[in-house]
Structures are given as structure tokens and as C-alpha cells.
Amino acid sequence: MAKDKGTDKIIRQLKNEYYKNWRKKNPDKVKKAQERYWNKKALEVLSSKEN
Length: 51
What we know:
With 51 residues, the protein is mostly helical. It is built from 2 helices and no strands.
């Protein structure tokens, strides 16, 4: 089955809508994930400055 630009666009829109609704229903999980991400980035910056 070949995909074309139109199909890709529709798939992307459906995924965006799904994840938007998921984030709306799970704000606590989103917040925790963002905290983990930024803590990890901060540790990466600190470790790169030490080297």
C-alpha cells in the first residue's frame, strides 16, 4: 500500500488530535514528563561543563 502526501497529512492530523486529547485528560502525566525532560537536560549541561 503506497502512501501519498494527502494520506500522510491526514495521519498527522489524527495523531495530533489524539495526543492533544490525551494531554488534556492527563495533565499530571504531562507535567511529570516535562519535569523529567528538563531535569535530564540540566544534568547533561552540568556534566558537559565539568568535562
